[in-house]
Structure formats: C-alpha cells, structure tokens
Amino acid sequence: MSFFKKIFSSEKKETLDKGLEKSKTNFFDKLSKAVAGKSKVDDDVLDNLEEILVSSDVGVNTTLKIITRIEERVEKDKYLGTAELNKILREEIAGLLSETNSGEDTEFKIPENKKPYVIMVVGVNGAGKTTTIGKLAYQFKKQGLNVVLGAADTFRAAAIDQLQVWADRVDVPIVKQEMGSDPASVAFDALESGVSQNADVIIIDTAGRLHNKINLMNELTKVKRVMQKVVGDAPHDVLLVLDGSTGQNAFEQAKQFTAATEVTSLAVTKLDGTAKGGVVIGISDQFKIPVKYIGVGEGINDLQVFNKYEFVDSFFK
Ligand SMILES: Nc1nc2c(ncn2[C@@H]2O[C@H](COP(=O)(O)OP(=O)(O)OP(=O)(O)O)[C@@H](O)[C@H]2O)c(=O)[nH]1
C-alpha cells in the first residue's frame, strides 16, 4: 500500500469511527447492561438483544434474522458465553451485509465502457441529496474525471441555487434552467452538454416530492426516458439518498422510492450525530440494494464509499 493510500485510509477510518460513535455508544451501553451478570447467552439475553437491535433501527425483519442465526449457533454450541456475543454479532452482521454488498471498495471506479456515466439522484428534500451530489462531484474530480451537474430539481429555486453553490465550490459545470421548468428538459440539456464536453460523469439532481406516488413515478420515468434519447443506456445508476438519522422513516422512504422507480444503489447520510446507524444494516438487508455511500459529516470529504468490512470493524471495535 502506498504511503498516500495509508494516510488516506487512516483518515477515512478516523472519520468513520467518529461518525459512528453515537450509534456505537448507544448500542454497546445497552448491550453491556443486557449481559451484565450473565455468562451464558440464554433466552433472556436474546430477548434483550432483540430489543436493542430494534431500538437501534436495524428494523424488525432484519433483527429477527440476526436473532434466529444466533439462536442456531446457541443450539449448536450448547454453551455460548456472553463474552463471545460481540464477535458473533459482528460475524452475523458482516454475513448479512455480504448478501447485498460486495463492498471491499475504497473508491468507486466508473466502468471504462460507460462514458458518460450518468447518475440520477433521487430522495426526499432535506435527505442530503444536494450535499451528496457536491461531495460526489468532488470525489470524481479528484480522480481526474470531468463532471457535469444537472439541476433537474426545478421545483424549488433554493434547490437550484444550492447545487450552483456546490458546482462553484467543486469547480464543475452545471446545467440549469428557471425554477418550474420541465425536469426532463434540464436532464436532456445536461446530458447533451455533458456529451459535447466529453464528460466522464453526469450527475442529475431530481425533485424529492413524495406527496403522490403516481406523480413521482411519472416524473422519474419521464426524466429517464428523455435522458435515453441522448445516452441510450442512461441512467447507469439511480442513487437513492436517505437520511440515516430518521431511522424508521428512512425505511419508509426507501419503500416509496423503490415502488416508484428502479433504485440501483443507496447513499445513507447523516450517520454522524445520530444513534441510528443500525439503519444501514436493516435497509441494505430489506431492500437488497447495495449501500454505495455513507455520509458521516457535513464536510466535502465526509462522504465515504461504503465498505462493509470497515463499517463492521468500526462498529464493533
Ligand atoms: N451531519 C451531516 N449533515 C449532512 C450530511 N449530509 C447532508 N447533511 C446536511 O443536511 C442538510 C440537508 O442537505 P441537502 O443536501 O441540502 O439536502 P437535500 O436533500 O438536497 O434537500 P433540499 O436541498 O432541501 O432539496 C444540509 O444542512 C447538509 O449539510 C451528513 O452526512 N452529515
């Protein structure tokens, strides 16, 4: 490993550790209370563990899966000490995450034969869409790629302005129109402009209104259809941004968006400052969609490519 890579990884690790601190403290405080005075994993411990996982926003279905797997191990081992519980949980959670996340990545590499690579970003207002797009643009630019942004969230003037702020900050071109114009038309322009500029990546912001599933579905379908007039297989990635600090509400949003369009990857934001980090485990398991990025701070560097090993290591350190 190069010296630079080592420094970068240790910085990434520090940010991740700091970002997950609240979730960890919450989880392990409860876990240590649950096993206090017990040497063996018994029904009581498992009941408590179930409650802790649910209250850590892992979600009921995923919690039951984890508990069943631990029960099976208890059954096999006969005597499973509480001291081993931490290690077992870590193994089971890593196993669950492996079902959806290949996740050894430290950086997302754009496939060679997909240029321009088009990312359509969806999610409700306030989930951290704009910030995530800005941070992503910065990461791609650091990789030496040409990035173009498309401000297709035309529903609110502030959304266009905010994306412009990020475009200026990262120093990448942005394609935008007036507030209220047709999002599909902005997406079309952005792709045309990207193709003519020989862009490597085009990131399209979309409106996050959820008041009506049919409207949302129609709008996203239209944006996709119109983009395909310029780049036949666009979008290559439909990235759903979820606010991790909303816990169960993030599950609800994932449900609504996956019903409205095909979502191919997830970004879970605001994991710093929340005790609900377990949401990453549950959402990835329930929706069988890989978590590609996690947001662990407001800074430009605080979006990390999700790596299941790093995540579990940081959580169970
Ligand atoms: N702490 C923290 N804050 C974040 C993170 N990601 C985004 N935010 C903050 O969340 C707030 C909302 O983010 P935006 O990017 O504006 O959200 P949006 O989804 O684009 O919402 P609209 O602009 O309202 O459409 C901002 O104050 C961001 O700085 C994160 O990973 N950690």
Automatic annotation (TrEMBL):
Any single GO BP term: SRP-dependent cotranslational protein targeting to membrane
Limits of the SRP54-type proteins GTP-binding domain: 290-303
Gene3D superfamilies (alphabetical): P-loop containing nucleotide triphosphate hydrolases, Signal recognition particle SRP54, nucleotide-binding domain
Highest rank taxon of the organism: Bacteria
Keywords assigned by UniProt, alphabetized: Cell membrane, Cytoplasm, GTP-binding, Hydrolase, Membrane, Nucleotide-binding, Receptor
InterPro entries listed in its UniProt record: AAA+_ATPase, P-loop_NTPase, Signal_recog_particl_SRP54_hlx, SR_rcpt_FtsY, SRP/SRP_N, SRP54_GTPase_dom, SRP54_N_sf
Annotated EC: 3.6.5.4
Quaternary structure and partners: Part of the signal recognition particle protein translocation system, which is composed of SRP and FtsY.
Biological role: Involved in targeting and insertion of nascent membrane proteins into the cytoplasmic membrane. Acts as a receptor for the complex formed by the signal recognition particle (SRP) and the ribosome-nascent chain (RNC).
Protein name: Signal recognition particle receptor FtsY
Species: Formosa agariphila (strain DSM 15362 / KCTC 12365 / LMG 23005 / KMM 3901 / M-2Alg 35-1)
Organism lineage string: Bacteria, Pseudomonadati, Bacteroidota, Flavobacteriia, Flavobacteriales
